[in-house]
Amino acid sequence: MKNLKFLLLGTIFGIILIKAEVISWFRIQEMFRFQSFHMYGIIGSAICVGMISLLIIKKYKIKTFSGEEIKVEPKTFSKGNIIGGFMFGLGWAMTGACPGPLYALIGSGLPIIIVVLLSAVLGTYCYGCLKDKLPH
Amino acid sequence: MNILLQPWPWYVAGPLIGLMVPLLLLVGNKAFGISSTLRHICAACIPTKAKFFNYDWKAEKWNLIFALGMVIGGLIAGYFLRNPNPIELSESAIESMNKMGVKNYSGFIPSDVFNFSQLLTLRGFILMIVGGFMIGFGTRYAGGCTSGHAIMGLSNLQFPSLVATCCFFGGGVIMTWFILPYIMNL
Question: What does the domain layout of chain B look like in residue ranges?
Answer without folding.
Answer: 1-85, 116-186
